[in-house]
Every structure is written in structure tokens, then in C-alpha cells.
Amino acid sequence: MSDALINGLAGAGGGIIAQLITYPLQTVNTRQQTERYLKKEKRKLGAIDRMSQVVNQEGWTQLYGGLTPSLVGTAASQGVYYYFYQIFRNKAEAAALEHRNKGVGDGSVGMLSSLVVAALSGCINVLLTNPIWVIVTRMQTHTKKSQPSHPQSIDSDEAVLAAVEPPPYGTSHAIQEVYGEAGVSGFWKGVLPTLIMVSNPSIQFMLYETLLKKLKQRRALNNKDNNGITALEIFLLGALAKLGATVGTYPLLARLQAKQVSGGDKRHHYKGTLDAIMKMVRYEGFYGFYKGMSTKIVQSVLAAAVLFMIKEELVRGARWLLTKDASNAVRSKPP
């Protein structure tokens, strides 16, 4: 099994676990990002209040709306990202060693090279998995329709119909809705800002690799017999890297992927990325770009820290098993 495939599978596994742990916060953050209110309106709910509101009005299961496609998307996204990241990383490391042999550099991958590796991996990931995340966002922002407030004012047949629970909003409904609005191109809605936001994981991985390199160097100097990195240290490095990336690159992606307002107030209908930016600045102010940022920081930092930690442990375990199997195979060969 190739090193890239090991990292890809480990990334998918780590992403699934991180997603399960932090999904309610992700749902709340998506709701906060897609709330449409103007500058003069003061309807601002924190993460806990927003979560309580969803549970009270729609049920606790709605906090996990879109979980299934989200898990599929996470596994695919992290698997693709880490697979190509390892391929490009191996090439960057080989180039760095070649340069060292020529008397240039110390043989390690620099910050700029790490940034390029992460950016290339991110672009491939976005183009392949964007349709999944459009569906996930649509399901997260879907709200149940409220029942009539005065059922006594309708006849008996209508009362029976009103009492029937509406069919659940599933993946197929979201797919049909997106296709009905914009056709096939609708599944790549928001792909431009998403490609721009590749800078987030690029900065994250650049910071992570730089911090990891520094820690290994310090560990090697202080204790030459043990320069290994613990799971807790990986967790903390991942959290710091994601915190730095998130603060600098908070996205407006969810606003573009959410269901568009087809009628009424045109101030909340976006024709594209530039139109969304202009209308958000004009009608909502610059605060509109940072809705739910505190929730996003908690969710994304925790998810990234868990992902890095689980992924590295899975990689170590897989390499240990492969090495053990290889050693057993050598010992079992007849002399």
C-alpha cells in the first residue's frame, strides 16, 4: 500500500470522527452564516441560543440534518485531500533533497513549498467534492414548515392534512432542488469563493508543518533518544494551525450555497460571488462577512485538532501493521 493511500484513508477516517463530534456546531454555524438580516436589525443569537432554538422549534435531530451526505463528503474530501497532499509532499521533499545535494538549502521543505503543496491539493479536492458540500449546506439550512397557528379556523379535511407530519427533507430532495434551480452547474455553486478559500487549509497546513518541524528539531536537540511527537502534541499543533488559518480567512461560502430567495426582497438574492459581496456590504455591513465566526472558530479548531490527531495515529498504526506483516513474511520464507 502506497504512503499516499495510507494517508488518504487515514484522513478520511479522522475526518469522519471529527465530523461526528462537531457536527451540531457546524449546523449552527451554517445557520448563522446564512441568516439574512439587514444592518438595522438586531437579531443576533449566540451558538448556545441558536442551538436551543433549533432543538425547541425543529427537534434535536435537526442539529444533525444532512449528516449522512456530510459524512460521505468528509470522507471523500479528506481522503482526496490527504492522498494528493502526500503525493505532492513527497515530490517536494524529493526536490528539497536534490537541492541539498547541489548545495542549496538544508533538505527540508520550506514554508512556500508547503503552501503550494497544500494549495494544489485543496484545488483538486474542491473541484471533485464541491457538489457534495452544496447538498450538505442545503440540508443544514432547511427548516421544517410550521403548522397553522389556528387549526380551528380550517375544515376537518384540512385539519387532518395539517396534522400529518411532512415528509423528511432528504438527500434526494436537496439534489432535485439544486438541479431545479440552476441545473448541473448549481452543484458547483460557490466553487469560485471555495477555490479562493483554499487559502484556509493551505495556511493551516503550512503552519502545521512549520510548527511540527520546529517541535521535532527542538525535541531532537533536547533528547536525542526520543524525538517522537505525542497524540496530544499533534492535537495542539492542529488546533493552533487551524486557529491561525480561520481567523485570517473566514468564508462567505455558505451564503452562496444556501437556497436563493426567488421572490420578494431582491437584496437577498445573489447572482454570483461579486454580487453577493456588494449586497452584503451595502445592506448588512462588513459584519455580514463574519456572522457566526466565534462558533466557526470553536467548531473548526476542535474538528481540525481531532482530525490531525486521529489521522496521525491511524497512519502510525497502518505503517506498523504493514511493517509487521512484511517482517513476518520475510521470517516465514524458507531458507
State the CATH superfamily name.
Answer: Mitochondrial carrier domain
Tally of helical segments: 12
CA-based gyration radius: 24 Å
Strand content: under 5%
Q: Which oligomeric form is depicted?
A: single chain
At the first level of CATH, the class is Mainly Alpha
Shape: globular
Summarize the main sheet. none
Looking at the structure, the CATH topology is Mitochondrial carrier fold
CATH architecture: Alpha/alpha barrel
Helical content, roughly? Answer: over 70%
What are the main properties of this structure?
single chain; 335 residues; mainly alpha; Mitochondrial carrier fold; 12 helices
Task: Give structural notes.
The chain has 335 residues and is mainly α. The protein is built from twelve helices and no strands. Helix 4 (111-141) crosses helix 8 (199-222) and helix 8 runs antiparallel to helix 9 (231-248). The protein is globular, with a radius of gyration of 24 Å.
Topology, pairings included?
Blueprint: H1 3-34, H2 47-58, H3 67-101, H4 111-141, H5 156-163, H6 171-182, H7 191-196, H8 199-222, H9 231-248, H10 253-257, H11 273-284, H12 293-332
What's the gist of this structure?
The chain is built from 12 helices and no strands. It is mainly α and 335 residues long.
